[in-house]
Amino acid sequence: MITAGPTHEAIDPVRFVGNHSSGKMGYAIANSFAREGAQVTLISGPSSLDQPVGISNFIAVTSAEEMFKGAEQNYGDADIIVFAAAIADYRPKSVAKEKIKKKAEDMSIEMEKTIDIAKTLGEQKQKHQLNIGFALETENEEANALKKLKNKNFDLVVLNSLRDENAAFGHNTNKVKIYGQKGLLTESELLSKSKVADIILNQIYKLSI
């Protein structure tokens, strides 16, 4: 099971809180698994990408709550779970039923946390399951990635840095470091996301044997 893309948290019928995730990395991982013959469930937030060929189950969602419901329903049947989605950490506490009109110079929106999908499902992880997460960081990168590894019960965490040119959001290339329970396992050069996906799969394979 793979989650991919952003989530959009509605402010009103025409506006939302979101991020710049394109879904390219998650889709590349789904493609790599499918090429290896795996039965893949891909849960995707809003994306302009074509549905990957050869996957077993494609679930399109918009919000973090919808992504959680889809992930929760499929988590128990999965042996390998990759949390590649860039889920909005906060959402508006209330959603306006009509488009908010421009009336004043300033506007405040009260926000509340969205559910932490990876952590919530990580608490349900069984012995046969492997959970893999992503950490997109701008500072204290390794420390923050290792903190996620522990707090979310990941077996592997893939670190992206926004400091790396032509990597992470929106690009067709990526540069990553992969950490396990004993520290850094491997790191890549700047490569196509499909090649980075193969590197991630190789590390997952090593854990599963």
Q: Structural class, from helix and strand content? A: alpha/beta
Radius of gyration using CA atoms only: 17 Å
- Enumerate how many helices there are, as a single number: 5
Average of pLDDT = 94
Beta-strand fraction estimate: 25-35%
Low-confidence stretches: none
The helix fraction, in percent, is 25-40%
Taken in chain order, the helices and strands follow as: EEEHEEHEEEHEHEEEEEH
DSSP strand count: 14
Largest sheet: 8 strands, mixed
Strand order of the largest sheet: 5-4-1-6-9-10-12-13
Q: How many angstroms does the end-to-end distance come to?
A: 19 Å
Task: Tell me the overall shape.
Answer: globular
Describe it for me?
Strands 5-4-1-6-9-10-12-13 form an eight-stranded mixed β-sheet, sandwiched between helices. The protein has a two-stranded antiparallel ribbon with strand order 2-3. A two-stranded antiparallel sheet has the order 7-8. By secondary structure, the protein is of the alpha/beta class. It is 27% helix and 25% strand. The mean pLDDT is 94. It has helices spanning 24-35, 64-75, 117-122, 141-151, 193-208; strands spanning 2-4, 9-10, 16-17, 41-44, 57-60, 80-83, 90-92, 111-113, 130-137, 156-161, 173-174, 176-180, 183-187, 191-192.
